[in-house]
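Form 7-S
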Amino acid sequence: MFKQIIAKKNLEDAYLRLASDMELDGRAHRYRGWDGWKLADAEVRAPELLKAVQEELSAFSPLAPAVLFKIPKKSNPQKMREIYIYNLKERIKAQAIYQVVEPVFDRYFSPYLFSYRSSHPSYFAARSAVRHYQKYWQRDGVLIGDLTDYSNYIRFDRLKEQIEKLDFDKKTAELLFLFIGNEVIRDGAIIRPEFGLVQGVPLIALFNNLYLDAFDKYAGERADFYRRVGDDLIVFDQKLKRLGTLKIQLETEAARLGLKINLDKTRLQAAAAPFDFLGYHFANGLISLPISFRRALIKKWRQQFSYYRCQDQGRKRRFLQQAAKRERDSLREQFKQLAEQKKLVSDEAQTRRLSEAFFRVLTKYFYKDYSPRHRRLLAGKLKNLGLSSVYKYFLNARYGKIKGKN
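Output:
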């Protein structure tokens, strides 16, 4: 396996995969590590770069430090999120190792894990949770848990012991160990963390999953239903008392691993009581969008179609037409992605209200205030735009193509 990792073809594949990923999310021309290498440079000097990567892997050279950056969180710009930027060579190394060892890790993982696994996408976790809930919501209890930033508390010695159990050859294991306890640049100083993994490469997702594998198997074998996706876990069982016992056991198991379950985000209750999981709201046997998600979406529409943008009705309509039909991030594409990403929603009354909320925003955009008359007049403004309602997109995602525009 070691020879497979450092083979020229594997390194070339790793480079091409990294380049493709960066092109897709727009980072190809701006990503650079502290050594100054950019992807555009590598396109010209790829043989030189890959040769250096091969030599350093063969020699088990320590990684160059990853640089810590702090950026505002999307959900709360007042708070900062820490991210690490690896040099381009280190990213190629990580990808080259990952694409060879990933199948070995995946075969070992718990069947209850749906986090960063191509064989177990997170959508399947949400879908199975929804199906179980819809069948047993009046019978079961539910435990919703959150493992607080678990990747930042992983113990190196325990993780290495778990990797050694996977029976990798010694050289392959040594390559994996390069990304455990590696150095970082924080506030201008080079330091080596005492615990916690340095995020920023796909190998870390494998390490996170492996570290919690025993936790997942322990929980999955002791309840009617268990799923984990990243920090979030959900457990259903017909006996609420058994869930209470399991909650205590999981807290103990987490503590043994040096981790914590976030008690503020942990709930143990009857499944008939409302709760949220993986971006869905569960209540009264129906699946809907969480209140915070709906509010953020409507706020985005209001900002996009502010009534004071201009006074000219023709310009307003042209702006709407451009928004509806432009090639990238059009309203059509936004609605389609929303419906596809949230197609487990079963509360049709809510999606109707959400759809009408969008038309309410457009009514105010054209007429400054909302009234039933203005809402009726809006139909003329939308004529020939081919703009279907959000509700229709949800129906199409759930049941297939639906005729009509309502």
